[in-house]
Specification:
- The protein is globular, with a radius of gyration of 22 Å.
- It is an alpha/beta fold.
- Helix 6 links the parallel strand 3 and strand 4.
- The termini are far apart.
- It is built from 16 helices and 15 strands.
- The longest helix has 17 residues.
- The structure holds pyridoxal-5'-phosphate.
- The site of pyridoxal-5'-phosphate has 13 residues, from helix 5.
Length: 412
């Protein structure tokens, strides 16, 4: 009887195309954290750029607009998204100097995450190469590989405020290169790229006829007067896909709502854009209630300067975390000009780390603190980690204290 039952059990293996897809920042370290939680331990989690659990809520005005529209949100919307939200996105881009964007060039999605995958699915054939920063937000590399392409990493230079190294970028371009990914402001480094560097990157894209995919989800989270330049505004002559969304500035990560804006000359890309439309149609539409947050969010009901100026929560937390982190012997860190993360370096002379993922597991087990390992962001070395500074100052103090205690005795 038992053997008969076994005969019906089919071996279910994952698709071979997943063999090359990594998303380690949610891999073994997170699994170990869940096990420790299940065993009753409380884990201090500074591994995710998710504002809500840290008490950073969306403005009431935005939420009340969504509530008002819940009953009109029962049906599917246009596959690209509701008109009022696409209008609001097009106007927002116009105000930011990106010309010629109309609502028909705006696709809404269930977060930037969905739109990243869609934009690459529509583009890539096996063997196609896409330039991606190292370190990167690893969904980009994972999604390129998932779509059969090949992620080719260009170096960002810690000595130059983590700006991309243009020479290295140029050296990575081949006749298989289809697109260049820009993540600015950057996760995990917090870099906000200089105008000159961006112009240099766009020049390479122009010369080599590359599609530009620019992830600007942190475009308004800037410190100390840093200026964000939108790639689409700097290069109106190039086809640029700009991605953004409600998860960070607007503190609505759980709404899963984002946009993809197509700017520049579109005539030579109608085939690709038809493919994008096909994929948008196939998923019917993005979540409709969440789309109702876009118009109030982009239309002026959200101003986050109070969080970013001296005395504001994000600014004070960044300053505190950076000072406390860089006071640990052997730890240096670029002071982030944007976004929500510190990406410190542990001097390999002081901390010879062979396996930084294992280090994160050891940190969890010894201090019940959850951070992310640098190589999980496609950095080729094992000497960095990422910490989110969304938590309040006392919590950051506790966390960095735990890290310092851990490091003082840690050797691999
Ligand atoms: N892009 C970057 C650079 C991110 O850091 C994140 C989330 O941390 C995302 C995209 C995902 O955004 P969404 O919540 O809109 O899917």
């Amino acid at each position: 009887m038992a053997s008969e039952r076994r005969d019906h059990n089919v071996q279910v293996a994952q698709a071979s195309r997943l063999g090359n897809v990594r998303y380690d920042i949610r891999g073994p370290v997170l699994r170990r954290a869940r096990q420790l939680e299940a065993a009753g331990h409380e884990i201090l989690k500074l591994n995710l750029g998710n504002p809500a659990p840290f008490g950073l809520d969306a403005p009431d005005d935005v939420l009340s607009d969504v509530v008002k529209h819940v009953s009109d949100s029962q049906g599917y919307s246009d596959a690209r998204g509701i008109q009022s939200a696409r209008d609001a996105v097009a106007q927002f881009f116009d105000r930011r100097g990106v010309t010629g964007v109309s609502p028909e060039h705006v696709f809404l999605g269930n977060g930037v995450s969905e739109l990243i995958v869609m934009s690459l699915q529509a583009l890539l054939d096996p063997g196609d190469e896409v330039l991606v920063p190292s370190p990167d937000y690893p969904l980009w590399t994972g999604a390129i590989n998932l779509c059969g392409g090949s992620a080719v990493h260009y170096r960002c230079d810690e000595q130059n405020d983590w700006n991309p190294d243009l020479e290295h970028l140029a050296s990575k371009i081949t006749d298989r290169t289809r697109a260049m990914v820009i993540i600015n402001p950057n996760n995990p480094t917090g870099a906000v790229y200089s105008r000159e560097i961006l112009l240099g990157m766009l020049d390479l894209a122009r010369t080599h006829r590359l599609l530009v995919l620019t992830d600007e989800i942190y475009d308004q989270i800037l410190y100390d007067g840093a200026v964000h330049n939108s790639a689409a505004a700097l290069a109106p002559d190039l086809l640029v896909l700009t991605l953004g969304g409600l998860s960070k500035t607007y503190r609505l990560a759980g709404f899963r709502s984002g946009w993809l804006v197509i700017s520049g000359p579109r005539e030579h890309a109608t085939d690709y854009l038809d493919g994008l439309e096909l994929l948008a149609n196939m998923r019917l539409c993005p979540n409709v209630p969440a789309q109702h947050a876009i118009e109030p969010a982009l239309g002026g009901k959200v101003d986050i300067t109070h969080l970013l100026e001296p005395g504001g929560r994000l600014r004070d937390q960044r300053d505190f975390a950076w000072q406390r982190m860089t006071a640990i012997p052997g730890v240096t860190c670029y002071q982030p000009a944007g976004a929500l993360y510190l990406f410190p370096r542990l001097d390999p002379e002081v901390y010879p780390i062979r396996d930084d993922e294992q280090m994160m597991i050891d940190l969890l087990e010894q201090q019940y603190l959850l951070l992310s390992h640098g190589s999980g962001f496609n950095l080729p070395t094992t000497d960095h980690l990422r910490m989110v500074f969304l938590a309040t100052v006392p919590v950051l103090d506790d966390a960095i204290g735990r890290l310092a205690r851990f490091l003082s005795g840690y050797r691999q």
